[in-house]
Amino acid sequence: MVSRILIVPIRLWQLTFSAILPPSCRFTPSCSAYAITALQRHGPFKGGWLAIRRIGRCHPWGSSGYDPVP
């Protein structure tokens, strides 16, 4: 239930701003898709933590490439 509530703003991001802005995520899947999968697979606490860590790694000096949800 809590995971579904946390997914709503991510989906809103995907459907609004992300659809307008050029792609900028360094990873595959995108950070928002990763966050949704992490929340669905691991729940709000661990999934939320995984999503926060992933977003923290998404910067110009970080790594890039395929990074699936564990």
Properties at a glance:
single chain; 70 residues; mainly alpha; two-stranded parallel sheet; 3 helices
General description of the model:
The chain is mostly helical. The chain has one domain. The protein contains three helices and two strands; from the N terminus they run H-H-E-H-E. The protein has helices at residues 2-15, 17-20, 31-57, and strands at 27-28, 65-66. A two-stranded parallel sheet has the order 1-2. The two termini are 21 Å apart. The model has no long low-confidence stretch (mean pLDDT 93).
Detail the topology: elements first, then pairings.
Layout (H helix, E strand, L loop, with lengths): L1 H14 L1 H4 L6 E2 L2 H27 L7 E2 L4
Parallel strand pairs: 1-2
Strand content: 5-15%
The overall pLDDT, averaged over residues, is 93
Strand order of the largest sheet: 1-2
Structural class determined from secondary elements: mainly alpha
Question: Terminal Cα separation, in Å?
Answer: 21 Å
Largest β-sheet summary: 2 strands, parallel
Total strand segments: 2
How many domain regions?
A: 1
List the helices and strands in order. HHEHE
Using only C-alpha atoms, the radius of gyration works out to 12 Å
What is the approximate shape?
globular
Percent in helix: 55-70%
Query: Regions with pLDDT < 50 over 5+ consecutive residues?
Result: none
- The number of helical runs is 3
